[in-house]
Write a structure and sequence with these properties.
The chain is globular. 26% of the residues lie in helices and 25% in strands. The protein is α+β, with helices and mostly antiparallel strands and 359 residues long.
Amino acid sequence: MMDPEVSLLLDCAHWSGLLEHQVQVELSDRFNRQTDPLLEQHINRVWTERLSKEPWLFNGAKFRLHSFCLASPEKLGCFQSDCGEQQGGETGQDRGDVNVINGCIRQTEDGGGVSQVISQPKHHPGSVLTLRLGLTCYKDYLGTNWSGEVAELRRRGQEEFGDPLALLAQPLGVGAVLCTCDGQVVFIRRSQKVAEAGGLLDIPGGHPEPKAVCERLGEAAGEEQISLVMMQQRPDAVVSELFSSICAEIRDEVNIPLSSLGAPVMMGIALNHTSAGRPSSEFYISCSLSSDEVRTLYWKGGAEANESTDVVFLSTTEVMQLNRSSPLWSEMCPSAKGAMLLYQMVKPGEPSKPNREER
């Protein structure tokens, strides 16, 4: 199913999705975006212009997805990819254009490897996926991925670094396919006042927050003083934030208590091409409440109730049948489309499909 707005970078269908203990992160300044004085001037100019129109904007730190390493099912090596474009719901490992070797070579968008070798991470017992993360921020996102100059930035990235995404912020988001106990998937209609995709159907989502990790580790710092050094000794805390942040977003956006949510299952990573391939880790989360109970809680209002105007439910059967010809498809924002594609591929809620790690 081809859709120019969205594609899949990674699916975890072989494992029926991944639990928190199966994911690890590697943190390094090497995984930050590349830059130069002219680009910084451009980013500052864009930010100043946006602040003059929207003075309430806040420049929060975000994690930047540089690449990932996925253990092969046979444990013979690892699949390695940067977050370049794939098309139409195919993933790199499905297409066979991701290099599988003992040391991982970064992949370019045309499927060819560049000369730089990135060493294979040391997998902790039970881990399957390693996310390589740097730091970025909302200001950098507006000045790169969301900038009118993004095509030129991609061209320069390819020409100067062999990577069209090298100069882009690429903040890692999170989203959730939230399924109620009566088999309904929860969507929210975005407010017309939000910065992107106003009025469209979306899933609960947001971003894991570096500041939250630092606070959990007792490292007090302002957003612009946050550094990877504060977190490098405890990468597990970053994984915890990745998985817990999506539950917090559901609580704040839909007003569902955390005690009603099951453990998040990571389905994969989708790319939003309306913002230059911005990546989002998509999760499946079960809910012990019925759709009627969720609707009642939603209308009572959560901490971020102002970000949406309605709650909509589709049965899991309807979600499995969604495609580009479905009337609702055109009402969905790219983040929701990517999550639906992953849900259809991974099928994480099927009880008859045990996690293959345990076989």
